[in-house]
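A reminder from the course coordinator: this example appears on the midterm review sheet, so study it carefully.

Given structure:
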């Protein structure tokens, strides 16, 4: 009985609305127990905001839940079914190594998914082992929390535990489980699954569920499924613009990795760009650069078109009309994305009002950055403090001319220099999770069981707009290397 008591004290308050969808959307399944769970990291502020007690979570019973060895009261673990276009090819997927425990109802009344990632095989595992390695789970923890601190909608990371079991990737790795928190795990791929293998009634049930969960203020008089499509498009336009503005490269924007909530999801081969170059790709499997930095807005539009296709039977009884509605909604994405991006870029340059020439001012800065291999984050940070650093870009006449134009532009707005500077501070991060810093933290954690490097990194990343002296150390670039930084999907 003590186990149950401790779990109740932990503060789990789980509901299972997803389990009330038609049965074909999931498979009920408990996690596969692991040998000897050990808590590696726990997100205190997130736990507290979810109504969970951090002491209880750290107890044996608390950790047993995070490892999948105990099922908290109210949980109804299940693997979600979904399909996807992976690098353009349609396929059936589903949670191959994750289980939804349930939806935690937070003290403020929000509903969030609690998912264990790496919790064992499921009917959707295909040839996978259902497990995850410590390095990639800590990587997801670091980058998702950094994204959250940057003000970008994202799934969150509550905890990482090691399992006491080894798993085989290229080498033997410590096994681990990440507890992921998301406003939901509904994806474009969930709709693709319903559209391909479900009935229209299944599809309608899923669409109604998504509306209720993410867009409850839908007006009953309007076409609710068109509203769903338009709102998902709007949220993606905001999200992708934010990625571009900080130089985030998702790396694997398959349609299963695009959440309808508008949160960034699935941190696999993602990484931040150093030198500005739209062609930047880190993922070892992205041979053709499909998911390169500069391609992300196009891919988002492509993925959203796949989403729109699934909704056609719900949009209108007349198919031509349905296609027209879908096409109009999709064609809005580009404009929505662009206006979000432009607004964000103006802020990065301290500009409050709008002038038609702003776009070319921004574009000429970016093309100089590309030409002179200027670091994306550090260039904007240097401009924020108007302290051009000793880089090739800042030494050129081209830049001097641009700088003058920019100053004149700032002079044409009413806001003071000080408010312009403040706007730039709040829009240009002092630091991002630099790839070499993330690797260094993971290496210490995985090879030496030294978590201090990661904890320090997480601490500085939690205040990206602080521009504090301790962050300076984290903004230095990696030593020049002959090998390009590569990320891997084999997580
Ligand atoms: P991702 O690349 O993380 O979006 O994963 C694509 C698909 O592969 C999803 O269905 C995952 O659940 C599945 N998957 C990834 N790794 C594993 C694994 N180790 N075992 C089983 N399924 C996996
Ligand atoms: Mg995925």
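Designed residues:
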């Amino acid at each position: 009985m003590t186990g149950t008591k401790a779990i109740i004290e932990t503060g789990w308050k789980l509901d299972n609305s997803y389990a009330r969808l038609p049965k074909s959307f999931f498979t009920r399944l408990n996690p596969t127990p692991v040998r000897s769970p050990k808590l590696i990291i726990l997100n205190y502020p997130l736990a507290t905001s979810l109504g969970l007690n951090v002491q209880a979570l750290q107890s044996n019973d608390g950790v047993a839940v995070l490892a999948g060895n105990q099922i908290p009261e109210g949980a109804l673990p299940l693997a979600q079914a979904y399909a996807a276009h992976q690098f353009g090819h349609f396929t059936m997927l589903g949670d191959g190594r994750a289980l939804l425990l349930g939806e935690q109802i937070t003290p403020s009344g929000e509903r969030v998914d609690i998912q264990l990632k790496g919790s064992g095989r499921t009917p959707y595992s295909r040839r996978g082992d259902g497990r995850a390695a410590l390095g990639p789970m800590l990587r997801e923890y670091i980058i998702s929390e950094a994204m959250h601190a940057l003000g970008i909608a994202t799934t969150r990371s509550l905890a990482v535990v090691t399992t006491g079991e080894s798993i085989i990737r290229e080498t033997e790795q410590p096994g681990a489980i990440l507890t992921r928190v998301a406003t939901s795990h509904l994806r474009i791929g969930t709709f693709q699954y319903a559209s391909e293998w479900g009935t229209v009634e299944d599809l309608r049930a899923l669409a109604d569920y998504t509306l209720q969960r993410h867009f409850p203020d839908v007006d009953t008089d309007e076409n609710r499924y068109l509203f769903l499509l338009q709102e998902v498009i709007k949220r993606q336009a905001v999200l992708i613009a934010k990625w571009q503005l900080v130089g985030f490269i998702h790396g694997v924007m398959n349609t299963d990795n695009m959440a309808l909530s508008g949160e960034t999801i699935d941190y696999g081969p993602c990484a931040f760009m150093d030198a500005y170059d739209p062609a930047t790709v880190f993922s070892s499997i992205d041979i053709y650069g499909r998911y390169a930095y500069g391609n992300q807005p196009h891919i988002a539009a492509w993925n959203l078109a796949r989403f729109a296709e699934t909704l056609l039977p719900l949009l209108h009884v007349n198919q031509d009309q349905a296609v027209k509605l879908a096409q109009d909604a999709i064609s809005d994405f580009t404009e929505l994305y662009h206006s979000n991006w432009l607004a964000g870029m103006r802020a990065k340059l301290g500009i409050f009002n709008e002038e038609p020439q702003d776009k070319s001012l921004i574009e000429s800065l970016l093309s100089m950055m590309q030409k002179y291999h200027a670091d994306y984050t550090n260039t904007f940070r240097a401009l924020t403090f108007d302290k051009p650093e000793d880089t090739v870009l800042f030494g050129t006449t081209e830049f001097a001319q641009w700088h003058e134009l920019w100053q004149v532009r700032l002079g044409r707005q009413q806001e003071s220099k000080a408010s312009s500077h403040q706007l730039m501070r709040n829009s240009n991060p002092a630091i991002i999770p630099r790839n070499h810093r993330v690797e260094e933290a993971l290496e210490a954690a995985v090879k030496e069981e030294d978590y201090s490097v990661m904890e320090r990194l997480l601490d500085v990343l939690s205040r990206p707009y602080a521009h504090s002296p301790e962050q300076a150390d984290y903004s230095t670039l990696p030593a020049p290397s002959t090998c390009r930084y590569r990320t891997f999907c084999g997580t």
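The CA atoms of residues 229 and 308 lie 7 Å apart. The pocket of adenosine monophosphate (ligand 1) is lined by residues 93-97, 124-125, 128-131, 252, 256-257, 266, 268, 489 (CB under 6 Å).
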